[in-house]
C-alpha cells in the first residue's frame, strides 16, 4: 500500500463497495464487558455489588471459646509444642552467642511461627494420607466381603444342586427297580 491512502478506502483496507454494514453506519458504541456491568459480578437478577470482607470482620468471627479449645484441634498441640521447642532452642542459642536480647527474641518468635506452621501443615498432610489409606482399606474389606459372600452363595448353590442330583439319582434308581416289576406284572 502506498504512503497516501485512497480516500475511498476505509481504515480496514476495504473499498466503498465491500464495506460491512456497521462500517457504513458507524461502529457500534463500545459497550463495556458484560461481566463488568454493575451487578453482573454479584446477583445478576437483582444486582448489588459484592461486599468485601475486612480485617475487622475477620476479628469479629473469632470467639474466646475457640481460643480456649485450640489445643483440642487435630495437629495443633503437636505443632505448638514443636514450635515452642524450636523457638526456645534458636532464641537461646542466639542469646548465648551474644546477640542482643531483642534480636534473639525476634529469632525465637520467627522460629516458633514458621516451625509451628510447617509442622501443622505436615501433620495435616499426614492425616489426609492416613484417611485416604483407611478409606482404601475399607473399600478393599468391603470388596473382599462381597467376594466371600458371592463365593458362599455359589458354594451353597453347588451343594444344593449336588443334593438334588443325588436325590434324583436315588429316586431314579429306586423307581427303576420298581419299573421292572411294573412292566412284568
The separation of the N and C termini measures 123 Å
Low-confidence stretches: 1-10
Residue share in helix? 55-70%
- Total of helices: 5
Backbone CA Rg: 42 Å
State the main characteristics.
about 180 residues, mainly alpha, 5 helices, about 65% helix, disordered N terminus
Describe the structure.
The structure is a single chain. With 185 residues, this protein is an all-alpha fold. Helices cover 65% and strands 0% of the residues. Helix 4 packs antiparallel against helix 5. Residues 1-10 have low confidence and may be disordered.
Q: Helix and strand layout, with pairings?
A:
Elements: H1 21-25, H2 55-60, H3 64-68, H4 76-96, H5 101-184
Short summary of the structure?
The chain is mainly alpha-helical and 185 residues long. The chain contains five helices and no strands.
Amino acid at each position: 500500500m502506498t504512503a497516501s491512502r485512497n480516500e475511498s478506502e476505509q481504515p480496514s483496507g476495504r473499498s466503498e463497495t465491500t464495506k460491512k454494514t456497521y462500517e457504513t453506519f458507524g461502529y457500534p458504541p463500545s459497550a463495556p464487558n458484560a461481566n463488568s456491568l454493575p451487578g453482573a459480578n454479584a446477583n445478576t437478577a437483582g444486582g448489588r455489588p459484592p461486599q468485601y470482607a475486612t480485617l475487622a470482620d475477620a476479628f469479629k468471627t473469632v470467639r474466646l471459646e475457640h481460643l480456649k479449645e485450640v489445643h483440642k484441634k487435630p495437629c495443633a498441640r503437636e505443632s505448638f509444642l514443636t514450635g515452642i521447642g524450636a523457638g526456645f532452642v534458636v532464641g537461646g542459642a542466639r542469646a548465648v552467642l551474644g546477640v542482643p536480647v531483642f534480636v534473639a527474641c525476634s529469632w525465637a518468635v520467627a522460629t516458633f511461627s514458621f516451625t509451628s506452621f510447617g509442622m501443622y501443615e505436615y501433620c495435616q498432610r499426614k492425616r489426609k494420607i492416613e484417611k485416604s489409606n483407611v478409606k482404601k482399606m475399607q473399600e478393599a474389606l468391603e470388596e473382599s466381603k462381597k467376594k466371600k459372600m458371592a463365593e458362599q452363595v455359589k458354594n451353597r448353590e453347588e451343594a444344593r444342586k449336588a443334593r438334588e442330583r443325588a436325590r434324583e439319582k436315588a429316586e431314579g434308581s429306586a423307581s427303576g427297580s420298581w419299573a421292572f416289576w411294573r412292566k412284568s406284572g
